[in-house]
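For the sake of transparency, this paper describes our internal protein records without simplification. The tokens are whole numbers drawn from a learned vocabulary of local backbone shapes. One such record is reproduced below, unchanged from the form in which we store it.

. . .
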Amino acid sequence: MPRYLISFPSPAMVVRADELADVGEAASAVVDEMRAAGVYVFAGGLRDDVEPTRVTGDDVVSDELYPQTRELSGGFTIIDVASRDEAHAWAAKLAVACRCPQEVREFGDDPRA
């Protein structure tokens, strides 16, 4: 089955501090539902307080990132479902839980799978 990335950038989720616990519980409930349905692969968020790095093939580590990815942030969920429509349905549930729209992207096939 295809795998999909459901995500949102950090600035998209605009909630008051007193709402964060409710958002966390709602998002956890959707993840629990995904697990029960057998479609859950991974979920998490990128830490805004830890600087990303770039590593070259000769093991040089630097803070020089690709310009288009410097602002990569937010929450991510990976699911394994039968169709794009099903991915959209899960994204809609996450949109309600996180109180912001979600982006859906399909991963390319793993040629070894």
Q: What stands out?
A: Residues 3-106 form a domain with the Alpha-Beta Plaits fold (CATH 3.30.70.1060). Residues 16 and 23 are 10 Å apart (CA to CA). The mean pLDDT is 91. The chain is about 30% helix and 25% strand.
